[in-house]
Amino acid sequence: MKENQKDAIFANPLDKVATFSFDDQVVQVFPDMIKRSVPGYSNMIGMTGVIASRYWQPGTRIYDLGCSLGASTLSVCHQIEDASLEIIALDNSPAMIERCQQVLDQEARMSSGERRHIQLECADICEYPIENASVVILNFTFQFLPVENRLPLLKKILSGLAPGGVLVLSEKVRFEQAEQQDTLFDLHLDFKRANGYSELEISQKRAALENFLQAESFTTHQQRFDAAGFAQSSVWFQYLNFASMLAIKAR
């Protein structure tokens, strides 16, 4: 397996900044990119496994939608030791899926081959069926979907969840008050600078993500959870303009 590389994708001036894509170039630097770009990432991923261990029901599945390199899937595996655990991990990037398989294989070797059943699929999460689930994970995936696809996906997830099942959704968020949005946006830029990104890198990556990553407010997420039919929802973690939420199906 190739070693992870430092993210320098936007370090040099580009004649034209293309729309961001989870291609092989991004996959090679993804662990470094997300560590230096997403405040609180390790906390959210680590706690995802803890949450899953509380809400997982034996005989049901866990879905990791937009699994990237399998960080959330592995977090779940580290918390749930039951041999019957079944995880279905999806991503629509072939490069991500290929590298994720390498990561999972390496993890299995390091743990003497002992690993719960993980089904890795290259698929569109909006099209893939959700069935017999007690935990569904959407960590930094929802924000890349067209807005019109978001409520239908939540309704499909709710339909596939067992009573008492949970959705974990982690996102970049926007704030309804302009001053709060500006303050936390600027602090996020400072976070990136503190992690070694140059002004050129920050500017070019922002251009690449424009109209691709569409962040929403807590109110919008809450209203959509309600519209989908979840019994309750709450924010359990926030670090600057990144947050993680729980939405729970009625028992």
Automatic annotation (TrEMBL):
Residues 62-165 form the Methyltransferase domain. The keyword S-adenosyl-L-methionine applies. InterPro entries: CmoA, Methyltransf_25, SAM-dependent_MTases_sf. It catalyses: prephenate + S-adenosyl-L-methionine = carboxy-S-adenosyl-L-methionine + 3-phenylpyruvate + H2O. Pfam families: Methyltransf_25. PANTHER family: CARBOXY-S-ADENOSYL-L-METHIONINE SYNTHASE (PTHR43861:SF2), TRANS-ACONITATE 2-METHYLTRANSFERASE-RELATED (PTHR43861). This is Carboxy-S-adenosyl-L-methionine synthase. It comes from Oceanospirillum sediminis. The lineage of its organism: Bacteria, Pseudomonadati, Pseudomonadota, Gammaproteobacteria, Oceanospirillales.
